[in-house]
Amino acid sequence: MRLTPRSVRARATLAACAVVAVALTVASLAMLSLLRANLRGNAEQSARVQAVAVAKLAADGRLTKLVPLGRGTDFVQVVDAEGRVVAVSQNVVGRPALALVPPALPEADAFGQLGIEVHQQVTSVVVDTPKGQVVVHAGVSLGAADDAESTTALILAVGCPLLLLTVALVTWRVTGRALRPVEAIRSEVAAIGEQELHRRVPIPRGDDEITRLATTMNGMLDRLDLAGRRQRQFIADASHELRSPIAVLRTQLEVALGHPDAAVRAELVEGALQDAERLQALAADLLFLARLDAGSADRPTDPTDLTELVRATVRRRGSTLCDVVFDEVEGEGEVVGEGEVEGEVIVPGNRLWLTRLVTNLVDNAERHARRTVRIRVRRDEVTGEGVLEVFNDGPAVDPADRERIFERFTRLDDARSRDDGGTGLGLPIARDIAQHHGGTLAVVDSVQGATFQVRLPLTQACGSPQVADLG
After folding, report:
1. pLDDT for 340-394, tens place per residue?
2. For residue 128, what is the enclosing H or E element?
3. CB distance 126 to 133 below 8 Å
4. Alpha-carbon span 304 to 353, nearest angstrom
5. Would you call 297 helix, strand, or coil by DSSP?
6. What does the alpha-carbon distance between residue 50 and residue 88 come to, in Å, rounded to a whole number?
7. Are 91 and 75 within 8 A, CB to CB?
8. In the chain, which stretches have pLDDT less than 50?
9. In angstroms, what is the C-alpha Rg of the chain?
10. Measured between alpha carbons, how far is residue 456 from residues 106, 121, 301, 306 in Å?
11. Could you tell me if 451 and 311 are in contact, meaning their C-beta atoms sit under 8 angstroms apart?
C-alpha cells in the first residue's frame, strides 16, 4: 500500500503542510507558555507590592484591623503565628485564615477558603512585628489572565487550521503553476513519435531550471533528429551502393551461364569476381563504421610509433599505382636523407585502427594522384601533437568541398571513383578513427594538389623534440 502521493504537486503540498503544522504547533505552545508566564508574573508582582506594603505597616506597629486594598489587589489577610486573623481587607472580613505557610503554592484556592469566586495569585510575606511574627497574604485576581489565555488558545485553535489550509491552497496553486511547463514538456515529448523528431518542446519564459530543462531537451531532440536523418541517409546510400554491384554481378553471372564461348565466360566470371570483391570491401567498410559508431567512449591508450606504423603500412602494400615517396626531415623541413628516422612520434592509439586510417588516406591519394604520393610524419611541439600529412599531386580539393568529402558515400568524381573501386567510405572512416583517438583529420592548403592532415595527441612519455617527416 502506497502511503505517499504519487504526484510531485501533492507531495510538495503535503510536505509544506507538515512543516507548517509542526511550526505552528511549536509556536502556539511557546506563545501560550510565554503568555501564561507573563500574566502570572505581572499578577505576582502586584500581589507582592501589596504584601510588602502591608508587611511594612505591621513591622512599624501601624497595622489596623481593616487593611485598605491597593490598585489591582483582590484581598489582604494578615495571620499571626497561632493562625489567628489579625487584619484583613474589607471583602474578606470574617473569613478563616488561609492555610498557606511560606513557601506556599502561588495560586491559592481563594474561592474554597475565602469565598472569592475568582482564581487568585497569592503572595505571602513573613514579617516580625512588635507583637510577634505574622504572615501577610495578598491576592491578585487571575481572571483576566485566564480569559486572555483562553482567548488566545481559541484564536490559535481556529487560526492555525485556517492558516494551514491557506498554506496548502497556496502551495498547491504555486506548485501547479511551476510544474505546468514540465507537464507541457512531458506531453510534447510523449506525442513525439519516431517520424516526428522535428518537433520541439515549448520553452517557457525566464531563465530558471525548467527553462534550462526545456533547452536541454530540445538539444537532445536535435541530436536524435540528426542521428535519425543520418541513419536513414546511411541506409539509403548503403542500399544504393549495394544494389548496383549486385545487379551487375547478377547480370554477368546470367550472361556467363548462357554464353557458349568459354573465353567470354571466363572474362565475365572474372568481372563478377571483381564485383564480389568490391561488395566484400563495401560490407567490411560498413561493418567497420558500425563498430566505430557503437565503440567504447574510452580512447585507445597503447603507445604507437606513428613513423614506424606508416612505414610498415606502406611497405606491406607492395606495388602501387603511383610512386609513394618518404621525405625524412628534421626541424623546419630540411631533408636529411631517405630511409632514416631522426626521432619517434609516439601517439596513444589502436595500432590496427591507425593502420586502417593510413591505408585509407594512401588509397585515396593514389586514386587522385597523377604521379606521386608524399607522406610526412612530424611532431608539433607547440600544440603537443603528432602530425601525419598525405599529399598527392592530383587535382586540388575545392574549399567548398573540404567538409563534404568526409560525408559517407560522397564522391566528387563519381565515375573515376567507381572505376578505381572507391566506395565513398574511406575518408569518413579515416576521420572517425582520428576523432576516436582524440585527433582531427582535415584538408589543408597546399601549393598544388591536395594535402590531408591528421593531428593526434602525443603520449606524455614522448622523448626528444625531433621530427620525422615522411612524404
Report:
1. 334 678 999 888 889 989 989 998 888 888 888 899 998 888 888 999 999 998 8
2. strand 120-129
3. yes
4. 11
5. coil
6. 13
7. yes
8. 1, 101-105, 297, 328-342, 414-419, 461-471
9. 50
10. 91, 93, 12, 10
11. no
* Cβ(395)–Cβ(368) below 8 Å: yes
* Strands 107-108 vs 120-129: parallel, antiparallel or unpaired: antiparallel
Residue by residue, DSSP assigns 240-285 as HHHHHHHHHHHHHHHHHHH---HHHHHHHHHHHHHHHHHHHHHHHH
Q: Which residues pair with 380 in a beta bridge?
A: 385
Residue 246, amino acid: I
The Cα–Cα gap between 104 and 120 comes to: 13
**Closest C-alpha among 59, 56, 50, 48 to residue 132:** 59
Count of CB atoms situated within 10 Å of the CB of 211 = 14
Output the CA–CA distances (angstroms, integers) from residue 471 to 309, 342, 387, in the order listed: 14, 14, 12
Alpha helices (runs of H) in 318-370, residue ranges in sequence order: 351-368
- How far apart CA 86 and CA 75 sit, in angstroms, is 14
Q: Which three cell numbers stand for residue 433?
A: 578513427
Beta-bridge partners for 119? none
User: Rounded to 5 degrees, what are φ and ψ at 457?
Assistant: -65, 140
Q: Which one-letter DSSP state was computed for residue 25?
A: H
Q: How far apart are CA 127 and CA 53, in angstroms?
A: 11
Q: What is the pLDDT of residue 272?
A: 83
Question: What 3-state class would DSSP assign to 191?
Answer: helix
Q: Are 355 and 309 in contact (CB under 8 A)?
A: yes
CA–CA distances in Å: residue 263 to residues 102, 144, 250, 260, 277: 138, 128, 19, 9, 21
Grid-cell match 504555486, residue found = 174
All structural domains of the chain:
9-146 (3.30.450), 209-293 (1.10.287.130), 303-457 (3.30.565.10)
In three-state secondary structure terms, 76 is strand
Amino acid sitting at position 330: E
Cell of 14: 503535503
3-state percent helix, strand, coil for the chain, nearest multiple of 5 = 50, 15, 30
